[in-house]
Design a protein that fits this description.
0% strand; 81% helix; 5 helices
Length: 121
Amino acid sequence: MTITIWIVQCLLGLLFIITGSFKFFQSKEKVIASGGTWASDFKAGTVKLIAGTELVCALLVLVPKLAGRWNGVAHVGATCIAIIMAGAIYTHIRRKEYSHAIINVVFLLMAAFVSYVNKPC
């Protein structure tokens, strides 16, 4: 079980560092052009805020696992990622982008698992 936790938690952290960095360091137009059509529903500042939040949460998930302590911090980061993914699912369903919504459901489940295994006692 420990290996599974390591894999899921590190994968979740790395995925959100990559996707958050992409959205944070690219313009809104480039995000839209590369397939992030959801960004057309939001202002550029909101897209950056979402991306920045994803980056911070990814670090909160990843650093405690690598440091071997502060599991409560990983719990908070994973919970925030789950909340972000709930909003993403809503946005994609509203836009009738069901395949994107399914991917976000997988990310939400990963975040919920990481949050659960790192919950403070």
